[in-house]
Amino acid sequence: MGEETAHIQPGIEPDIERRPRGWRHSATWVYLVMLVASAVALAVSFILSADTLKLARNPNQQLGCDVNAVLSCSTVAQSWQAEIVKFGGLSYPNAFFGIAAESVFVTIAVIGLARIAVPRWFAACTWLGGLAALAYSYWLTSQSLFVIQALCPWCMVLMFSTTIQFIALSHATVVVQELPPRKEGMARGLDTYYRLNYDLMVDVVWILALLAIIMVKDGPMIFR
């Protein structure tokens, strides 16, 4: 009888058993997904910035992504929604801010891959920043779909990459950074959500829903 046995109340399992395990929940995987998505978003932001400069030099120039009346980067780029920040009498294209923001997210993903510990406040602010970027991207997409009545192919790529970036960032915030703190009831629910891979199902439905909205709204016109 020399062995000691831990006394656990019936129906309550140790916290370690409730936490997500496996390669999908490792820091390497979630931050790698975030890095790829952020790098794609950064590259697209550079392309959009270059297109903006082309139009500034020659407003009548047709861009390579001007396919038809619906798929038209120049139509979107020449709308007021493409330059909502104004300061000192000048307006600044959204793509310029995309370069700045996505550079930060690429850096954060690299920090995560390097397993560098960050304060909880930093992880929380990072998630809020990702949420703000996602909300801004969705607002711009809604403006393209329902107000401007034109779609920019590069903007669509940016929107989907920002969505995947936020999905990976949220995953990392919960399973790697362990926010919210494990003493809170919400944390246990999130652990179950990821441990049982419900997130994978939700993410697939999320992406398909975005595609469905675009196809229902402009599908017939896109392929003309």
Describe this structure in words.
The protein is mostly helical. It has a single domain (23-81, 92-222), classed as de novo design (two linked rop proteins) (Up-down Bundle), CATH 1.20.1440. Helices cover 66% and strands 3% of the residues. The chain contains 8 helices and 2 strands. A two-stranded antiparallel sheet has the order 1-2. α2 (27-57) runs antiparallel to α4 (94-113), α2 runs antiparallel to α6 (153-175) and α5 (120-148) packs antiparallel against α6. The termini are far apart. The model is unreliable at 1-14 (pLDDT under 50).
Question: How would you concisely characterize the structure shown here?
Answer:
The protein is an all-alpha fold and 224 residues long.
- The H/E string reads HHHEEHHHHH
CATH class equals Mainly Alpha
Query: Helix coverage percent of residues?
Result: 55-70%
Number of helices: 8
GO molecular function: oxidoreductase activity; quinone binding
Protein name: Vitamin K epoxide reductase domain-containing protein
Main location: membrane
Domain Vitamin K epoxide reductase: 27-173
Task: Compile the SSE list and pairings.
Elements: H1 15-18, H2 27-57, H3 73-77, E1 85-87, E2 90-92, H4 94-113, H5 120-148, H6 153-175, H7 185-195, H8 198-222
Antiparallel strand pairs: 1-2
Helix pairs in contact: 2-4, 2-6, 5-6
